[in-house]
Amino acid sequence: MKVLTVNFLTCAVKACKGTALSFPLHFRDAELVQQEMDFHPTFVRNVLLRVDWEGLKVTAAELGFTTLPAEKPEGEALDNEQLLKDLHTLLLETQVTEGKLVCGNCQHEYAIKEGIPNFLLPNHLGSAPKSEAAFVE
Amino acid sequence: MAQYLIRLVQVHESFRKPEIFALAALENINVEVLSYDESSPFCTVKLHDEAAARALISRSILSKAIFELWATSSTYKDLHAAIRQNTASKWVHYKDCSFKFEVDAYQGKRSAAAQKELIESFSYMGFNGPIVMRGADETFCIFEEWDGSGTSLKQVWMGRLVARGSRDAITTYDLKKRCYISTTSMDAELALLTANLALAAPGKVIYDPFVGTGSFLFAAAHFGAYVTGSDIDGRSIRGKDRKRNVKANFKQYGLEGRFLDAWVADITNNPLRAGRWLDGIVCDPPYGVREGLKVLGTRDQARMKEVFYLENGEAAHL
């Protein structure tokens, strides 16, 4: 699981949605690997617009990356190829293969196995499904 | 502005025009459709220039190719007259280049000899360059549309090839050659078409909430997008073994560099962060018998509150 994906996701429990503590999810017992990905400066620039920078700083610090700029790079700062490469390495090439993601609000743990996180909820945390007819409508 | 002829394929007809408009939106091209009919594979459009024509069609799945339209008519007599009258100034540009002619008869057939005779009838244009069947500098094409019974000619067109579409990709992503598929894997043609309709392109993030074996993601990644997906059934993502899973498919196509992540989640209790971080969602939602409706939870309120504990006292869900 990539650092970028963690930045796009939050707790699956509906009551946690929108609470300050539920984002970002926190890594626990994370095993890291580096895997090479295509480097496209345009993509990094594009995707930075959608990244929650405060959340990314928290995630990065938890994984041991402490050199992130305090403010999200914008405008001319994005012409710096080295900065884009560093961000590319952090967002796309740094991956968690085993471990857990923990919600800071409800403390629910989502297991990551073979790089695939599991966000399925147990019965007592899920919402009651609507009837099939309601879905069709 | 010039007129161009798009040679469409006669499948998924209702998606052909939407695909052209989607690609026009993606490439920021002005398209004016001059003639189009669901029952015909020929569509004439007005475009700014050849570059626009190339950009419009080069990634199209439901178009074979786009041609600079030289003339069209219901009879060959009028076609030749129109070519002589309107395109004489163009002939000189193709005087010395290598070239070839093709005959494309829709709902009709012409023997090789008849095709040759037909091609010879255009000799007045004075192309003196070598005739090359493979890799010619310029390709000219004569199109015929016959009526359903193949007895009377409805319309003829003559044009010069500008660019071919992306139908080769359908073979590349053919399910028969993919290392990991399941009963409901989406066929390559429709997946690629969907990616075009979703405007998948370099620098974008495309998401499939019912990812299964990943068919839509390969199509979107083929067009340069970074892709991510989720499914309620983790087994479909993890696959059968090391060589048969979603990631292995990405490897097979050399697209693993554009694969963000696949995760296990129920779309009715999803972990997506609110905000505009996606460029597009492509999916084939579950329906029917093979993959029916499945969501988390139970309608039994009493069971909803239960927490299961393991023997060592830990909650089973943690």
From TrEMBL, chain A:
Any GO BP annotation: rRNA (guanine-N7)-methylation
Molecular function terms from GO: protein heterodimerization activity
Highest taxon in the source lineage: Eukaryota
Gene Ontology cellular component list: cytoplasm; nucleus
Main location: cytoplasm
Key words of the record: Cytoplasm, Nucleus
Keyword Cytoplasm: yes
Compartmental location: Cytoplasm; Nucleus
Listed SUPFAM superfamilies: Trm112p-like
Family under the similarity heading: Belongs to the TRM112 family.
UniProt-recorded name of the protein: Multifunctional methyltransferase subunit trm112
Organism: Trichoglossum hirsutum
UniProtKB/TrEMBL annotation, chain B:
Gene Ontology CC entries for this record: cytoplasm; tRNA methyltransferase complex
A Pfam family recorded for this sequence: UPF0020
Claim: tRNA-binding is one of the keywords in the record: yes
The Ribosomal RNA large subunit methyltransferase K/L-like methyltransferase domain, residue ranges: 178-292
Location within or outside the cell: Cytoplasm
Family: Belongs to the class I-like SAM-binding methyltransferase superfamily. TRM11 methyltransferase family.
Entry protein name: tRNA (guanine(10)-N(2))-methyltransferase
